[in-house]
Amino acid sequence: MTLLILGLVIFLGAHSTRIFAEGWRGAQLTRLGEKGWKGLYSVVSLVGFVLLVWGYGVARQDPVPLWTPSIGMRHLASLLTLVSFIFLAAAYVPRNAIKARLGHPMTLGVKVWALGHLLANHTLADLLLFGGFLVWSVLCFRAARARDRAAGTVRPAGTAAGTALTVAVGVGAWVVFALWLHGPLIGVRPFG
After folding, report:
1. How far apart are CA 115 and CA 83, in angstroms?
2. 162 and 92 Cβ atoms separated by less than 8 Å
3. pTM over the 0.85 mark
């Protein structure tokens, strides 16, 4: 569990500077320059990600069960993960109504993904991993919306074509990941 916890602290810590240390982040940007900051941020994030993936894999070898999830939670997790893929696509597809309305769909995608996986899984490692990402995404979304309000951010309106493309890309990516990639990469087949 130590590797998982260390990875979560490093990865989510790096991704929390805008939540808890905006002034410090700004000072580092000034001191290091944009490329220097992004380079340091990327290295720290990568180290944290490797540690949390490694730590989660190690923790799964000797699981500590906390509860017994129902079969229905697996189905709900699949549905929530589909929604999270659509939110993820909305972060990148231009001129979609999802991003225009919600502002930070990637953070919402992480929130929905974490919630779905937390409901369907039942070990201490699952609680740490998915619970950590859920708490982080709630705080991150709240901070981002507060920054938007303070800055008077107005997003361009979405179009029907942009929104349809967003949904199509999200559904397509979900199908590919759920049916063909989740098993080989994660070691669990969501369907079958």
Report:
1. 11
2. no
3. yes
